[in-house]
Amino acid sequence: MYEGAVQDLIDELGRLPGVGPKSAQRIAFHLLASDETDVRRLAHVLIQVKEKVKFCEICGNVAEEPQCRICRDPRRDLSLICVVEEAKDVVAIERTREFRGRYHVLGGAISPIEGIGPDELRIKELLQRLAGGEIMEIILATDPNLEGEATATYLSRLLRPMGLRVTRLASGLPVGGDLEYADEVTLGRAFEGRRSIDD
Amino acid sequence: MYEGAVQDLIDELGRLPGVGPKSAQRIAFHLLASDETDVRRLAHVLIQVKEKVKFCEICGNVAEEPQCRICRDPRRDLSLICVVEEAKDVVAIERTREFRGRYHVLGGAISPIEGIGPDELRIKELLQRLAGGEIMEIILATDPNLEGEATATYLSRLLRPMGLRVTRLASGLPVGGDLEYADEVTLGRAFEGRRSIDD
């Protein structure tokens, strides 16, 4: 145990995800040895992020204005919505530069174990967006795991009767990976989704 | 890339030791989803730690008063000084309850690669403490690695001519470990430092 403020900082840092007691101690001593301006800047951005960052009223992505950068962008294709679990998935997809539509952030995935059902996700808001009639295709980009698949299945059953095109991101071998290291489910999916090479 | 404040927070978190870009992103989104009071408390302890925490004028340990808790404690044995590299080593040794003297925190170890020589460490301050004449033994508890050993060797050559008892913590097999997993240097040290079992 350290004296007052040092221990308080170690305790607070230890509450962050992925920061164990040893890392919390290392970070605390790093901050003790840092310039006061650096530490004040970190404290400042922490407060800023809570004051400034809101969630986009259209898609639920993080935003500093009522609407996020993507929903405000007039060049985005309004007929396409890509449904993701979290705001960080938006960033991952934006990095590919493959998608020119808009997003819808669910805020998680269906998980009976964690007590998350469809009502806990932003599905009602998605249906409201569809009411406008301009949307032609919904791309389900939830995570390729149990919860993500369950959520995609739930949404496709809900949306398909509405006459929309509902698609799911392809599963298969990761590019640059070794076939022998692929798990059997991924390898199975890669067979299932195989394409002619003159494609 | 995220919008303004979120990206600023990810950048600042990414500067902390042991926090890579992925962890910084995970922590930032955790904080976004946290209660504002929790985030404000973290910001507050960051500022507190820089405002309140000083270094003990005697030993260099962290302290919230001019002298640390240990140097202020009248029950500690004034004839013994344990020399360590960092304040976190003090906490590790205190946990053993084996040592009842006082400490001296060097602020690092001699490392020619990192450009740290004896002048960068609190060695002058150690010599000043010895001038009082009440100190009988110096225990060198620097890390059992290259830099720590070099520092211990340097200090023992400096201090021994002063007529003090200079000791070094024992090296050997870690308690509870498996002999077969010990590296050869540690195993060699364990042989070198072997003791009669009637000890």
Automatic annotation (TrEMBL), chains A, B:
Alphabetically ordered keywords of this record: DNA damage, DNA recombination, DNA repair, Metal-binding, Zinc, Zinc-finger
Domain Toprim: 79-174
Transmembrane segments: none
CDD domains: TOPRIM_recR (cd01025)
Gene3D superfamilies: 3.30.60.80, 3.40.1360.10, 6.10.250.240, RecR Domain 1
Keyword Plastid: no
BP GO terms, sorted: DNA recombination; DNA repair
Annotated signal sequence range: none
Zinc finger (C4-type): 56-71
PROSITE patterns for this protein: RECR (PS01300), TOPRIM (PS50880)
InterPro entries: DNA_Rcmb_RecR (IPR000093), Rcmb_RecR (IPR023627), Rcmb_RecR_Znf (IPR015967), TOPRIM_dom (IPR006171), TOPRIM_RecR (IPR034137)
GO MF annotations in UniProt: DNA binding; zinc ion binding
Function of the protein: May play a role in DNA repair. It seems to be involved in an RecBC-independent recombinational process of DNA repair. It may act with RecF and RecO.
Similarity comment: family membership: Belongs to the RecR family.
Protein's UniProt name: Recombination protein RecR
Protein source organism: Kribbella antibiotica
